[in-house]
Design goal:
The chain is 29% helix and 29% strand. It starts with a strand and ends with a helix. The chain has a seven-stranded mixed sheet with strand order 2-3-1-4-5-9-6, with helices on both faces. It has a six-stranded antiparallel sheet with strand order 16-15-18-11-10-19. By secondary structure, the protein is an alpha+beta fold. The protein is globular, with a radius of gyration of 29 Å. The structure holds guanosine-5'-triphosphate (GTP) and magnesium ion. Residues 1-253 form the Tr-type G domain.
């Protein structure tokens, strides 16, 4: 049986979860349509989601359309949870992008559509909430073609838009304007059709157009648009037909080599790890031994939720138990396709999580480790000296959710310190340093020389040797390299140096005592520990010599505001250190684009409603790092500080 793994994506509150509920109902999976407002939908199943009425985690449900198993993945729309969307994108065969007929195209709608188009994921658009007062059809359609993609085709019209009675009427062969539009848009993507169209006007048979529409939708060249309401159910049947007709159902290569991707990890009632796996080819049976552990149980999504099966085959999504070492993003078997690193920008904020009761420290650690399994981007970091824990964040709502989750699921009450931006450090030049074994102020039995050089942003840390690889045991080289990578997490000012080339220029060690001495004397022979302890000192001297600069994260913003608020908004932007780079008047609105420090984004979000009577629309995402102007913003060190030699040696001594 063929499968379609379908994502539902949208700006927050557009109606994804409500639409999911409707689709499940229309497909006969559930008898009653649940409601987000009453907290009883299938996919907002977490207590916190039900309380808050927003989706926090992506969730999978399934139903059948004409013999095709559709695995539907409902995703969160709030930008703080964009990482959830990111993880899902790699397993989708198609998507439905939901747009509210009242709010129209919103900031996150643009971000998502841009990514869907870049990844060439076949996408239908569903314009939701046509039943609500203020709903618009023509205007939203125009906005979609203007702001998202020009290749859109309305698949029908709405009657009585903006009322409870609103209904969707699909177009057919008899609608001349529709067939003309089909021919015109599809001709763009197909030369033969273009020739026929030019030759013989609109006389291309309707059946041919319809087939071509499906073909081009599957190639993500065109985007059919449906209208309706997740609350009244209007247009939902047409959308279901559209999903069946226009999106690609996959017949997986069941006999190929096993290959799957883990896009979600959760814990079951007994605390057991559950991995959500999408298989791209082959099969994964129960009892299979994988690198991450032995599969103990598999449940495949079918007609609603997951049912126990002996295996999961190509095309399908399953919950797999037993993989104790599995992490999000891991591959099962052979990698399916070149994984793209990131579709969206990483978090640029961080905060310290403080347990309300000091004795909860251990429990907090365990809890955060569990949360990091489900969301590795929170990047839990431990401050060894002050014993504090840092997490990375997208924003304030995510912070509140982490706080509530810790309280409710783990019974750990926490507060957060002030949220700050995550800066990076970059080398200004080249530096080198060396520490020689047996020199007076080198207490370690090791010689290490390092040269550091700047590398372009995004290239990472490169470690190389300028000494003979055979000149020392490999474990000592490994100790140096591992320590270099660790020490670079905190540069001269305490921020990560993510891009640089480090070359080992000197090496030396004291060999084990010869046989004539009979016993191995540790004090006379080098150990990996000597290299681990010495390397930070050498690296820091080299970094200091090279000089480093602190860079802060900058976001690109796009701001749409009522024209008469322009003056106030521009003044506020200046106060927030934002730099508008272009402004364009669009009827009664202004579109401003520019850069704003990540540190100021939250302030802008807070002020915007008051500045623009609630009409301002802000789209914002990390773009690049920029040198911090003014005083250097240092970050507190979380390790033994190798910048202070005396103190460092003292602490190392104490640790040994
Ligand atoms: N009138 C009307 N209200 C709707 C419709 N669809 C959703 N809503 C309401 O809009 C609100 C948000 O709906 P959700 O389904 O939670 O939206 P969502 O896109 O899943 O939201 P997030 O997952 O938090 O991004 C709820 O109050 C719904 O009742 C619709 O078609 N008509
Ligand atoms: Mg939702």
């Amino acid at each position: 049986m063929s499968t379609l793994n379908l994502g539902i994506l949208a700006h927050v509150d557009a109606g994804k979860t409500s639409l999911t509920e409707r689709l499940l109902h229309a497909a006969g999976v559930i008898d009653e349509v649940g409601s987000v407002d009453e907290g009883n939908t299938q996919t907002d199943s977490l207590a916190l989601e039900r309380q808050r009425g927003i989706t926090i985690k992506s969730a999978v449900v399934s139903f059948e359309i004409g013999g095709v198993t559709v695995n539907l993945i409902d995703t969160p729309g709030h930008p703080d949870f964009i990482a959830e969307v990111e993880r899902v994108l790699s397993v989708l065969d198609g998507a439905v992008l939901v747009v509210s007929a009242v709010e129209g195209v919103q900031a996150q709608t643009r971000v998502l559509m841009r990514t869907l188009r870049r990844l060439r994921i076949p996408t239908l658009v569903f314009v939701n909430k046509t039943d609500r007062g203020g709903a618009q059809d023509e205007r939203v359609l125009w906005a979609i073609s203007e702001k998202l993609t020009p290749a859109v085709i309305a698949m029908g019209s709405v009657r009585e838009v903006g009322t409870r009675r609103s209904d969707f009427q699909p177009y057919g062969a008899a609608d001349a304007a529709f067939t003309a539009r089909l021919a015109e848009v599809l001709a763009e993507g197909d030369d033969a059709l273009l020739a026929a169209f030019v030759d013989d006007g609109a006389r291309v048979p309707y059946g041919v157009l319809r087939k071509e529409l499906a073909a081009q939708t599957r190639r993500a060249l065109v985007h059919p648009v449906f209208f309706g309401s997740a609350v009244t159910g209007a247009g939902v049947d047409s959308l279901i037909s559209g999903i069946g007709e226009l999106l690609p159902a996959i017949e997986g290569d069941v006999d190929g080599p096993a290959s799957g991707t883990v896009f979600k990890v959760e814990r079951g009632p007994a605390g057991e790890k559950i991995a959500y796996v999408r298989m791209f080819s082959g099969a994964l049976p129960v009892r299979e031994q994988t690198e991450a552990g032995r599969v103990t149980a598999i449940s495949v999504f079918e007609r609603g939720s997951a049912v126990q099966r002996g295996e999961v085959v190509a095309g399908r999504i399953a919950k797999v138990r037993g993989l104790t070492d599995i992490r999000i993003g891991d591959t099962i078997g052979t990698p399916a396709k070149e994984a793209e690193a990131h579709h969206f920008a990483p978090p640029t904020l961080e905060s310290v999580v403080v347990p309300a009761r000091p004795e909860d420290r251990g429990a907090l650690h365990l809890a955060l480790a569990h949360l990091a399994e489900q969301d590795p981007l929170i990047n839990v970091r431990q401050d060894e000296i002050r014993r504090e824990v840092f997490v990375s964040l997208y924003g304030e709502v995510q912070k509140e959710v982490i706080q509530a989750t810790l309280a409710e699921d783990f019974h750990v009450d926490v507060t957060f310190r002030e949220t700050t931006t995550i800066c990076v450090e970059r080398l200004s030049g080249t530096g080198a340093a060396v520490e020689i074994m047996h020199a007076e102020d080198n207490p370690f039995l090791a010689t290490v020389g390092l040269r550091v050089e700047p590398a372009p942003a995004g290239t990472g840390v490169e470690f190389g040797l300028e000494v003979e690889p055979g000149s020392m045991p490999p474990t000592f080289f490994k100790a140096v390299e591992d320590t270099v990578r660790l020490a670079l997490l905190q540069g001269v000012h305490g921020w990560e140096i993510s891009d640089c080339t480090v070359t080992m220029t000197h090496s030396g060690y004291a060999a084990r005592q010869s046989h004539s001495h009979a016993v191995f004397d540790k004090s006379m022979s080098s150990t990996a520990g000597d290299f681990r302890n010495l390397t930070p000192l050498v690296l820091m001297s080299a970094l200091r010599q090279a000089g480093t600069r602190v860079y802060e994260p900058m976001h690109r913003f796009r701001l749409e505001i009522p024209a008469d608020t322009f003056g106030q908004v521009v003044a506020a932007l200046a106060r927030l250190r934002a730099v508008p780079q272009s402004s364009e008047s669009r009827g009664s609105a202004y579109v401003l684009e520019g850069e704003i420090p990540a540190a100021m984004v939250h302030g802008l979000q807070r002020q915007l409603p008051a500045l623009t009577r609630g009409e301002g629309e802000l789209e914002c995402a990390f773009d690049r790092h920029q040198p911090v102007s003014g005083p250097v913003r240092g970050r507190r060190r979380t390790d033994h500080n190798p910048l202070n030699r005396k103190e460092y040696l003292l602490r190392v001594k104490r640790r040994v």
